[in-house]
Amino acid sequence: MVEARKGISCCKHVVLPVLVVLIVAVIIFLVKDKAHPSPVPSIPSSTPSAAPAPMVPTLENGTYGAALATSIQFLQIQKAGKLVGNTIAWRGDSALNDGKGASLDLSKGLYDAGDHMKFGFPMAFTGTILSWTILEYKQLLTGYGKLNLALDNLRWITDYLVNAHSADNVLCIQVGDPKVDHSCWDRPESMTEERPLLFINKTSPGSDVAGETAAALAAASLVFKSSNATYSSSLLKHAKQLFDFADKYRGIYSYTFPDLANYYNSTDYHDELLWAAAWLYHATGNMTYLQYTTDNGKKFKGYGDPTYFSWDDKRAGTQV
Ligand SMILES: *[C@@H]1O[C@H](CO)[C@@H](O)[C@H](O)[C@H]1NC(C)=O
Ligand SMILES: *[C@@H]1O[C@H](CO)[C@@H](O)[C@H](O)[C@H]1NC(C)=O
Ligand SMILES: *[C@@H]1O[C@H](CO)[C@@H](O)[C@H](O)[C@H]1NC(C)=O
Ligand SMILES: *[C@@H]1O[C@H](CO)[C@@H](O)[C@H](O)[C@H]1NC(C)=O
Ligand SMILES: *[C@@H]1O[C@H](CO)[C@@H](O)[C@H](O)[C@H]1NC(C)=O
């Protein structure tokens, strides 16, 4: 029994980032579909050409639209805190006291997967990718009637990340104890286990998680720029400080906290520094950030040689 449980908890915590990459993949397919309505090359013949693909988005089962809708719904399901306008019948308020011990409101954010952990590193990556998705494919999300849910999901993450950045050079990177959490098979609405907080700072650094959080907030500042300028500039302010913190006090968070290598093990932080600087340049137009990426892109090991794009390795993303 114990072994079986362990097996499940090992796999279940990677669901969130995998799903986020799925959202992007689905949208890319949708756009490709739209760009090339007929995947079959036209063969000269006497028969009339195939009917064009339907232009009205469909959410029917078995379509990419359904996969997109389900992915967005997954993020809704993962929401912690006091739910507002909840769209999921079987979810309720939970984790309302997260952060209270440190006088912080860390009640929002998304649970990682089937567990009740709030892991900052993959949650921030989710925020960055969701922002990128909304920036690139706003029209498509609107067409599917999913834009508002996507924005709500994003804001649920960024509200949490802003509060987690409780002071200059301090960031809460985790709520909950993964060892305890993974042996509690309860609902988040009724969990009673302790919810300890874990912070990085100048002496216990994590350039990867601070860099990714900076990237998420810079990217989200672009998303909210036209709808809420105050919120957008607050996100950007946090992003800039977090980038400075990440760059100045360097370290891999899963070296700082070796126990965390069992969950989201970070193999390097240089990719997150480049990724954060790229998003900051995008959000500010400030050449200093562009200069940082061009100078360090050459210097940081393996920049030109990415093999995949993931919550751990953003090199491919920095080259887009
Ligand atoms: C898709 O299938 C599920 C499971 O059978 C069903 O609950 C849902 O209503 C279907 N959705 C649509 C849009 O057909
Ligand atoms: C920095 O973080 C570490 C680990 O979270 C903690 O033990 C230490 O007290 C913190 N340092 C300061 C000055 O707050
Ligand atoms: C903008 O964001 C602020 C800060 O979260 C919030 O208080 C305010 O209601 C928002 N304004 C609009 C128009 O959404
Ligand atoms: C974490 O990553 C480091 C660097 O790649 C590696 O040396 C270490 O074995 C990994 N730890 C675990 C538990 O996977
Ligand atoms: C650009 O960013 C750098 C680094 O944060 C800052 O020192 C500089 O003042 C900024 N330049 C402008 C024009 O805002």
Structure report:
Residues 64-320 form the Glycoside hydrolase family domain. Pfam families: Glyco_hydro_9 (PF00759). This protein is mainly alpha-helical and 320 residues long. The protein has one domain (15-36, 59-82, 92-303): Glycosyltransferase. 52% of the residues lie in helices and 3% in strands. It contains twelve helices and three strands. It has helices at 2-12, 15-35, 64-77, 120-143, 147-164, 178-181, 207-223, 229-248, 253-256, 270-284, 287-299, 315-318; strands at residues 118-119, 171-175, 197-200. The protein has a three-stranded antiparallel β-sheet. Helix 2 (15-35) packs parallel to helix 4, helix 4 (120-143) runs parallel beside helix 7 (207-223) and helix 5 (147-164) crosses helix 7. The radius of gyration is 21 Å and the shape is globular. The chain starts with a helix and ends with a helix. It binds 2-acetamido-2-deoxy-beta-D-glucopyranose (NAG) (5 copies). One 2-acetamido-2-deoxy-beta-D-glucopyranose binds at residues 240, 286, 288.
